[in-house]
Structures are given as C-alpha cells and as structure tokens.
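=== RUN LOG ===
request id: a7f3
mode: sequence -> structure
chains: 1
length: 719
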Amino acid sequence: MAQGSGIEWTEATWNPVTGCTKVSPGCKHCYAERMAVRLQAMGQRNYRNGFGLTLQPDMLALPLGWKKPRTIFVNSMSDLFHEDVPVEYIERVFDVMRRARWHSFQVLTKRSQRLAELDARLAWAPNIWMGVSVESDAYRARIDDLRATRAAIRFLSLEPLLGPLPDLDLHGIDWVIVGGESGPGARPMSPEWVLDLRDQCRAAGVPFFFKQWGGWNKKKAGRTLEGRVWNEMPGSVRTSSSPSSPAELGFPQPSRESSRRVTRMSVESVLLALGPLVAWSSPRCASVQDQQPAPAAGAGPARLSESSWAHWRGPLATGVAPHADPPVSWSEKENVRWKSAIPGKGHSTPIVWRERVYLTTAIASGEPVEPIVDDAPGTHDSVPVTRKHSFQALAVDRRDGKILWQTTLREELPHEGGHFTGSYASASPTTDGEVLVAFFGSRGLHVLDLEGRILWQKDLGRMRTKHAHGEGSSPLLAEDNVVVVWDHEGESFLAAFERLTGAERWRVARDEETSWASPIAVVHDGRTQIVVSGTNRIRGYDLESGGVLWQCAGLSSNVVCSPVAGDGLVFAGSSYESQALLAIDLARAQGEISGSEAVLWVRRRATPYVPSLLLDRGSLYFLHHYQGFLARVDARSGAEPERALRLEGVDDVYASPVAAAGRIYVTDRSGLTIVLRQGVELEVLARNALDDSFSASAALVGRELFLRGERFLYCLAEP
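=== RESULT ===
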C-alpha cells in the first residue's frame, strides 16, 4: 500500500490482497514471502496471517484517494488471480481500477488460465495493464492466455529469468520486462538470454525494460546492458483527472483506524523500496514517468499508446511512430504479408490496435437513381449522386487480413456527390482501446465497442460543404471526450461528447467556412487544449469548457492540412489562394495573438495543401501544395537548411507523410511510395510501387506498414 516504490518499472504499489502460494519455479525464492514474514514480525495488521492469502477490503478504496496520477503495481504481495480469491472480489478490484481512471494500474499474474477464464466478466478499461510472469520456456503458454484477454496494455515480466526464451511470439504484446533473481540463493541469468530477448523486442517494435542483473547484491550488479540502461515503457493511457473524493464514486471513507493502518504501512513502502537485503539508506529509484519517453517539455500532443496507431496521425499525432521499424522496400511480389480486398470505398486511414486494424467505408447499395447534380456555389470537379450508400465500420485481423466484423452504421442517399477524387468515408476512425469512434459527418457520429457493437450515435445535421466537395475532418479522443469539428457553409461549431454515453458536454460556435482539417489535443501548463485550424483563425480551446484560449489569423481558405504540436509550439499550414505556415509559441499564446510575438515565424510560399505536416526530431516536413517536393525547416526558427527535394516520379499526393526508425515515407495517388533516410541531407532509399491508388495515409506499427488503397488494404512487412 505504498505511495512510492523502489520497483523500477512502477511508481506505487496497492495490495487489496496479500499472501500467496507457489505455482512454478519462479516462486522458489519469493521476495514477497520474505517481506510478509518480516512485516508480520513487526506487528503489521495486514500481515497478521504472514504469507497466508488474505483479502484486504479496507484497502480497496485506497487509490481513489490518491489525487496525483501515478502508475500502480497491483498486488505486489500476492496474485489477484489466485484460486482462493473470489471472483466477486476480483470484480470489485477491477471496478476500483476502472473508476480511478486517472491512474494506470499494472496487474501481474502467474495464473494465466484463471485470467483467461474470467476475462469476459472483468470490467476492462484503458488504464488497466495486464501482465503474466514467464520465467522459462516451460511457461510460455501463459503468453497465449494473456494475448486472448481484452486488456488495453499487455506485458510480460520475464523475471526471474531462469532460462532462454527463443523465438517468442510478441504479437499483441506491448511491453517486456526482463530481470534476474536477487537475494539469498539467487539463480544466475545468462547475458545471452537477455540480449536475445532485447533483440527480439527491437525486431517486433516492443518496448524493452531491463530491470536488473540480480544476484546476492543486486545494487552492485546494477542494471546496465551493453553500456546503457533500458527503461522503455508503453505509452501512458490515463484518461481523466481525479474526482474530489472516493466517496463521490460510491466508496465509504476509510475509518480513522484504517487511516492509521495505512499510515503505519509506510514501513512496507520502505521495505519495498529497499528490497529484502538492501541497507536502509538505499535511495528510491527514478519514477516511471521520468523513465518513459514523453512529449517535449511545455507542450505536446496528448499521448496514446506508442506501440499502436490509434489515430490517423499516429500515437503522438505528429505522423511519427516512435517504436516502429517498418520495411524499406516492397512490391506486389516482395514483403507483402497480406493483401485484402476492402468492400466499398474510403480514404480514411486505417488505425491499428492490438491484433486488429479498424477502417471505415461507404458501400454503394440499391438500385441507381436519377443523377442528383450538386448546385452549391462554385461547384466544380464534383460527381453526381446516383446510389444509396451503406456507411460501415469494420475490423480486420492484423495477422491474416481477414474481416472479423462489419457493422452498418447508417444507410441513406447522400445529399452531395463530393469531389471526383474524394470518398464518403474520408474521416479516419480513432480508438483508445475501449471504444472505436467513426465519424461520417452528415451521416452521423458513431461510437462502438471493439467487437463492433454500437454504444451510441449522434445525428449532428447536414453539412453544406464549399463547392460541394464533401466532408473529411477526423474525430479526436481527448481524455473522456469525443471531439468533432463541424466547419461548413452554415453554422459551424466545435463540440465535445462524453465518450461512453454520448452526452454533449459543450458546443461552441465557430466563425468559419468549410475546412477539412482535424483537431489535435495539446497539453500545456497542465491544461489540455484542443487546437483547430481554420480560414479565419487558428484557435486553441479549453478541453474542459470549450472556451477559446487564444486565436491567430493567417491561413488561407480551404484549409485541409491538420496542425501538429511539440516542444511548446503549434504549427499550422495551408495553401489555396494564398500560402501560409505558422509557428505559435504556446507560452505566449493568450487571447488574440495575430501579428504578436506569440507567432514565432511565418512562411508565405510553398506550403502544404492536402497532406498534413510531419514533425520529427526538431524538424518540420511538408509537401509543396500536394506535389512531389518535400521541404524541411527547423521547427523553432523556420529556417530551411536546403532546398526542397524533388521526389522524382511522384504524382499528386493526398496521403500525409509518416516517419519511423529515422526514415520518412511519402505515398502518392499512383501507388508509388518514396522512402527517405533522415540526416543532414535527405537520401532516397527506395521507390516502391503497388497496383492500387492511395489517398489514405499510412499506419506504422512494429515492423509493419499498412496502406489502404482504393481497392485493397496492404500489410507490408519483411518475412
């Protein structure tokens, strides 16, 4: 019940159950058993039964009283899935974790079969991480049990590592911890085992955390591997700020005696921090928040799981996949793991979570009707409406490309035909691991669970888009909110809805014409704001209230390019009748900032129109308009170190550039992808062609690259 912990991969511990029994060789020298005996001898009430399994119902509400968000190891002194823990009690623990959504909870078990049996009964939430201990090859079946659960983050604790674990299947695994045994009788761990696991994780794009070498004196042995400390972590999935008290969530306040017991349990926190045989003066290790990758100080996109592609611009909303290492070259005959025909048409980017790829599509249905021609002012390059359409969300198995489910969300005759290069499913879906959001604009906002069951739907009206060119702004999940932009040739607005119920939290009017840019969430000075580009103003809105925090003029009409943020700055661009690219300093952004010092720099030539910006390693990358010239500028100064690179053979580009492993990927509408190495100068590594046309942006996860074309969805990966 410690608010601090010396366990390197967590920040706090919480033990609603204490005591356990041994089930496999990894339990032989159990540190929790030795500690429980000590605490019993010291008179600690929660350990009156020593290491005998004991429920601690007084401890259930404890995390609800911790207001500061933290990562919490659940049952460091027991196993929640022990056969003697009643199912109803496990459900109560899960209910607390679900309600305390501002924390991230790490649950670890060796009893994976019981976990798998109870999976359907448990109230999983995005802030609950689930792991299994695998100490040797004999217990790798636990990984399959874990993979079958609905946990948002799945992790492996390979500690104490008692033997090699070659050729692990890490699909669906988000994090791997490796460590040697410590204390009396510690069994040795071979460096070759550790290096092999490290290499397997890197090959699979899975974060690797090396806890310790162990031994009699684990402090002396240290935790460096090949000259460095490995503290990689999965992305944070905390979703909201804390309530004012546990009582608000239906839990009674602890009695004074319980409070005194919790205070006295600080002795346990000291022992946990020190380990069974380490001197009392041993310092606490750095917190997990200090160790894990984080957005740059000052501002950065609200983070999603970094080992997924849950938003159309990736886990950081910048176009970058920080843990991916996709292939460099491919063709129709090389490095195509699978290629699946997708029904209908859609330009929405596929998103990837766990073993599934989620898409939206619009499928023509019914008999043809008399063509309905768009009559909006300035209409050009539009197609007439001739068929009803079925608007659908679907899930594809990431392993083989088979469609797992397909849910019809609406059927109707569209009121606008749209641009001849467009689609009725251009807004990309998004997920937080618990809900899937699909936005079809005039065809409604829809939220489903990850099995395709509809949770709620909203009809927001009918858009009248400029030139009748169609709709395309993607929805955003920000904490507990679904945020959508509704910019058109009518009453425009920005709105936020409660993600689980659909209740409207706020709606604010926007003095804007049609735009196709998507909103992003940016955290600055502890406050989450929603940044939205627009013709009249770029604006930052307070997520809690919808109030405008700042606004800045400067973009053109027909804004399509979405903003990005990082290092305390917001970047927004456009290109239509005029060109503009702006950098805004959030530390100075308050109220009307047009022409003020809050605007660090402005570029008025060769700016992006359709493809969005890519922000990586302190540089901002973008295409001229939607043509094959790739420019790079210094993000903070706007300086351009070299002339834009002409991408030979590249046709019109609608897909936004993406980056991973020091490489940039640019895909055009003809099916050609140029792969470039980042460096002092951009270097073309490969030119890859596929037999399809691509307007959707790529998704990068692990060693895979997903491309959604007019006809097919490709999974590209080396064998």
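=== NOTES ===
The chain is about 10% helix and 30% strand.
Residues 12-287 form one domain.
=== END ===
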